[in-house]
Amino acid sequence: MSLLQWTSEVYNKILLNLLLDRQNPVTKYCLERGLSQEIIQKFLLGYAPKQNLIISLSDKYNLDKYLLFQTGVLAQNRQGGFRDKFIDRLVIPVFNDKDKVIGFTGRVLPWDVSDRPKYLNSPQNHWFNKSEIWFGLNIAKNYIRKSKSAILVEGNMDVVSAHKNGLLNTIASQGTAFTEEQLKILKRHTSAVTIAFDNDGAGRLASQKFFIAATKLGLDIQKYIIPEEFKDLDEYLQNQPDTSTHKRKDYLDYSLYSLQNLLTSSNPRTQKEAINNFLELLINTNNLTKEQYISKISDLTGVTSQTLNLILQEKLPTLTTKISPKSSQLANTDIASNNTKESDILRNSFQKLVCANLGNKTLSNIFEILTIFIPEFEQLETYQLYIDSKKDEIDLIQENDTNIKNPQYIQTLMDSIMLFLDQNLHKFILDENKKNLYLELKKYHKSQVI
Questions:
Q1: 389 near 123, Cβ under 8 Å?
Q2: Looking at the chain, which terminus has fewer C-beta neighbours within 10 angstroms, N or C?
């Protein structure tokens, strides 16, 4: 048995034992979420206690702590020793399509009021490669083939909730970025995908990016209609568990309906942005689809089909994603996919700002926006996880790079990042959260001397 399989079974047994005590807060959480013993066993869900249980067991059974660290079960503390990585979290094992445990996601529980990240994932390593994983595919693949379709959600718990409610062809990516390898794996099982991402700006933006990337490979995309009063599919299913009443719509029809008020706006700038937004969705569609929807946009906006076709033709060279083998980020911008040098420059500039101790709030805001431009940031998910993973590099730069002590040099780095964001504002303007972070950074940049 592998160490990862062993770890998942240890945490699973702990959770099953806790279920015997109905007063235990972990048990209450499971009952509130509808996590029955059957669904817990199906996904091998577990609970990591507050104590360093895996450390204790590794001492008892003489297990290799460094190997447990490499596989992401343990983490290093500041003194160089080891500690349990997933303390006081619901632990969700990640399986490959051969039913082998390759990693974990740990979710904080409701009583945790600390600033720990909500989700903690295994690090990228030989066993766990996010760019090749669909969470739940090991369970869902037969149902996907049988139904000839897949439902795609954002989070692992969304998959668990969907399966609990009978949506057995539901899977999730490890994050909101998608790679060519992931899409090719998905296409081996089906050519029809229904997107059920969260009802927020990030979810809508991820849906658009997925549609553009997936249509390039010929996938047929629909939208799972989650009413606005629900934040995600999980919450929708908790309130409306009868999935026979749920609706799906062709993604382009859904997008056209969503943008209708903007497309018919009397404000020329608003209308122009909406037109550009929708035309980007047509980039990788076939000629018939392009013609049909350009005609619909023309009817709505009063802009001639000829003009709309010219605008679309101008977009094709710059927005069509060039894909490198396996891990090119289809969901990121053309900066990240077509010009890795610029992505490297951004990454290096940001790291030096971190080394210069620019300020955690400002650095966290920059990191959050740059996740859509730098694949590595998207995978790390939070600024704190970035700091934890780069601690040695940061320490080394702080000790040896004298430039980071030069205020003028740091000012230049900040200027270059802000200039880049100014020029690429259209890439994240539809994401309300990132737009607000950008405006906060603009205000900071104008008023502060670094």
A1: yes
A2: N
Domain containing 102 — which CATH number?
3.90.980.10
Instruction: Tell the residue number behind the tokens 């000839």, with chain if given.
Output: 148
pLDDT at 329 over 50: no
DSSP annotation of 354 reads H
Q: Using the predicted structure, report yes or no on whether residue 153 has a pLDDT greater than 80.
A: yes
Which of helix, strand or coil describes residue 97?
Answer: coil
- For residues 127-153, give the mean pLDDT: 92
Contact, 310 vs 299, CB < 8 A? no
Task: Record the tokens describing residue 402, joined without a space.
Answer: 């004298």
Report H helices in 259-339.
260-263, 268-281, 287-301, 305-319, 334-338
Tokens of 295: 């005609």
pLDDT for res 341: 59
**CA distance linking residue 414 with residue 408, whole number of Å:** 10
| Tokens read off for 144 | 């996907």
Q: Which residue has the tokens 């706006």?
A: 265
Beta-strand pair 46-48/89-95: antiparallel
**Residue 326: predicted pLDDT:** 36
Please check whether residues 248 and 276 belong to one and the same domain: yes
Could you give the number of structural domains in the chain?
3
Q: How far apart are the C-alpha atoms of 436 and 444, rounded to whole Å?
A: 12
Per the structure, the complete domain to which residue 85 belongs is given by 3-128
CB-CB contact of 156 with 137 (8 Å): no
pLDDT tens readout for residues 235-290 = 999 899 999 999 999 999 999 999 999 999 999 899 999 999 999 999 999 999 99
AA letter at 157: M
Amino acid letter for position 74 = L
Summarised one tens digit per residue, pLDDT across range 415-426 is 888 888 888 887
Pairwise CA distance, residues 138 & 163, whole Å: 13
